[in-house]
Specification:
Elements (H helix, E strand, L loop, with lengths): L4 H12 L7 H68 L11
Length: 102
Amino acid sequence: MPVNHQIVYFLQDALNLLPDLADPALTTSFASSTNDALLVVYLSSLLRAVIALHALVDNKATIGRAELEEDGSGKDKGKEKEKAVEGDTEKEPNKQPDAKNT
């Protein structure tokens, strides 16, 4: 297959349009742009982690409050039942003896 010089000329023109990567100003510009993009990615990841941790702590606090309310209401009901039972047992010894028993 013979070399098509027209294609070679187009390739040479395209490669000549590429920037000179040895230029210090261009290298600094690319480094600065890359650092800015990486900083945005880092800060967004950090913010996402903080929001996730906040949601986790908030969920844990909600569950803790719900458990405390369950325990508190359960204890109150238990105390009421204990008082009712104690009241019944205290009344029995204070009953007047029946005439039949004496």
